[in-house]
Amino acid sequence: MTDTTDERPGPINARPVPHPWRWVALVVIAILVAMMISSFVTNDKWDFPFALRVMNYNPVLDGLVKGTILGTVGAMVLGVGLGIIVGIMRLSTNPVLRGVSFVYTWFFRAIPRYVLLTILGTGLGYLYSTFDIGVPFGKQIAGLLGLSNDLTFFSLDVNQFSSTLAMGIIGLGLSEAAYMAEIARAGILSVDKGQTEAAHALGMSSGKTMRRVVLPQAMRVIVPPTGNETIAMVKDTSLLLALPVTTELFFQTQAIGTRTLQIMPTMVAATLWYLIVCSVLMVGQNYLEKRFGRGFGTGPARGDTSMLAKLRFRAGAGGA
Amino acid sequence: MSATQPTTATGTTAYPLVHAVNVTKAFHGNEVLKGIDMDVAKGEVVCLLGPSGSGKTTFLRCINQLESIDGGRIWVDGDLMGYAEKNGHLHHLSDKQVAAQRREIGMVFQRWNLFPHMTALENIMEAPVQVAGQSKAKAKERALALLDQVGLKDKPSAYPAQLSGGQQQRVAIARALAMDPKLMLFDEPTSALDPELVGEVLKVMRQLAQDGMTMIVVTHEMSFAREVADRVVFMDGGVVVEQGAPKDVINNPQHERTKSFLRRMRQEEDDAEATPSA
Ligand SMILES: Nc1ncnc2c1ncn2[C@@H]1O[C@H](COP(=O)(O)OP(=O)(O)O)[C@@H](O)[C@H]1O
Ligand SMILES: [Mg+2]
């Protein structure tokens, strides 16, 4: 519709650029998906009904919740917490802290998780049958002084503890901390030096500057790779078998597979559970990225900008 | 007040608020400050002028210990900055003591350095709550009053990225004022701003000067120096070349280096006026 009385150009109502190859690609993909579904339905060796039943078996659910989910959460909490501390130590002006951090990262990145868990599971109990907390060299001192008490406050049977989920979480967490330390270090370094100076100029101590100013901004850089690490950890919980801890998703489904000789459907059951857990984690990661992107324009902030941000996102997605 | 500080009376006050003597500073052997002496009286506004690289920023940063000095002494309100003197020996202050000294000094940076993950209000409340231990309610009330003072009453919940450069710099000034500093340091507060935003920041600073704040301002805004400063200090090559009342130094400079610098500044101002605003 053109208004001839006004010759100034009006609103733009342009046709989009045609994308014929998108349609071709879509058709090809649709055909492939149809073929796949058809094979699922016609080939009963897949036996999806059995796979779904396996997913709901109690030992499988138990392994999923305890070994896989709890193991992931525990190892990541330990890994992120310790990793941030090791990462901060690495950037310290204190050469002792820097050295400790370097050696820690060097050691735990070099050792494969499977090997580490095997050592913690069997080797440790062989070397030290109990783990005592007390006065250093308490036994020797007590012997010298002829005391009946050997100055030990807490004692743990290592052979029993070594094949528990807690030991698995410690092992995976220690290993994870080495990777998280590098991620945290990169995150901290990504924050502009002016931020630290502004905080110092206001009279903030170094610790408070780190907690209140630097880390919250570093999180923007730390969260995406941490999501990656978490998803990798979900899968690495299957290594708990090395301890051995058997209440874990993969071992439990595999056990059903060997017992029933239905290997493939049980693997499908495990795969589906891993897919579900990782999908939930991706939603969580998305939330965290928005949370720590506040004020950076990466996610909709409060107030009137949210609409604008959404529109911009949509425009960007449409052009891709 | 420290017994070691000589009482050089400036004006009517018993001793200067800032008393810097023979301050030297080198970066990797490159001597940037070559013995700076400077006294600033309570309530005085001093503008630091000088060509780029003359050490103005470095000197300001030395005053609140963002840089350590190699020689000389700086006292602020009678406190020796960064050191304690005991039996003729200097001892480094702990991080905590340094932080306590910095609380008395507000600093405004060229690139404002607001905390991007906090709203304007949260930026201003941060130090009073986290450093001075004020209650949130009290800090908020004061922060809102400060926002009003810098003309941003309607922006408490804006994030820095949602504010113009001039607005951000005004929030940064309010943030520094929230700790009730005895001294305010400004490092070229308007030189990263679009020309039309310079005025709003200078207006806030002018008001602050009228209210009696002691200020050291590094600036290239000649009209601000002329109208607001009690004294102008011209630095070049890490030394103070000349200083005095603005009208004397700016209109009637004695040293060749000051003259050529001012000539260049005037040239730039004329150019800016000659070209139609972009
Ligand atoms: N952190 C630093 N490391 C090395 N050199 C520096 C550093 N900061 C400043 N300088 C040098 O010190 C000199 C003075 O800089 P500065 O104080 O910023 O001058 P101004 O603010 O007057 O322009 C410059 O030559 C600059 O390169
Ligand atoms: Mg400078």
From TrEMBL, chain A:
Alphabetical list of CDD domains matching this protein: TM_PBP2
Transmembrane segments: 20-42, 63-91, 111-129, 263-284
Localization of this protein: Cell membrane; Membrane
Domain ABC transmembrane type-1: 65-285
Main location group: membrane
Keywords: Amino-acid transport, Membrane, Transmembrane, Transmembrane helix, Transport
Membrane topology: Multi-pass membrane protein
Protein name in UniProt: Amino acid ABC transporter permease
Organism for this UniProt entry: Knoellia koreensis
Lineage of producing organism: Bacteria, Bacillati, Actinomycetota, Actinomycetes, Micrococcales
TrEMBL record, chain B:
Topology relative to the membrane: Peripheral membrane protein
The keyword Membrane is annotated on this UniProt entry: yes
Record's subcellular location: Cell membrane
A cellular component annotation (GO) from this entry: plasma membrane
Catalysis performed (reactions): a polar amino acid(out) + ATP + H2O = a polar amino acid(in) + ADP + phosphate + H(+)
Its EC number(s): 7.4.2.1
Annotated region (Disordered), positions in chain: 249-278
InterPro entries: AAA+_ATPase, ABC_ATPase_HisP-typ, ABC_transporter-like_ATP-bd, ABC_transporter-like_CS, MetN_ABC_transporter-like, P-loop_NTPase
GO molecular function, one term: ATPase-coupled polar amino acid-transporter activity
Pfam families (alphabetical): ABC_tran (PF00005)
This protein's record includes keyword Transport: yes
Superkingdom to which the source organism belongs: Bacteria
Record domain ABC transporter: where: 18-262
Annotated transmembrane regions: none
Biased composition (Acidic residues): 268-278
The entry's keywords: Amino-acid transport, ATP-binding, Cell membrane, Membrane, Nucleotide-binding, Transport
Stored PANTHER family: AMINO ACID IMPORT ATP-BINDING PROTEIN, GLUTAMATE_ASPARTATE IMPORT ATP-BINDING PROTEIN GLTL
Family: Belongs to the ABC transporter superfamily.
Protein name: ABC-type polar-amino-acid transporter
Organism name: Knoellia koreensis
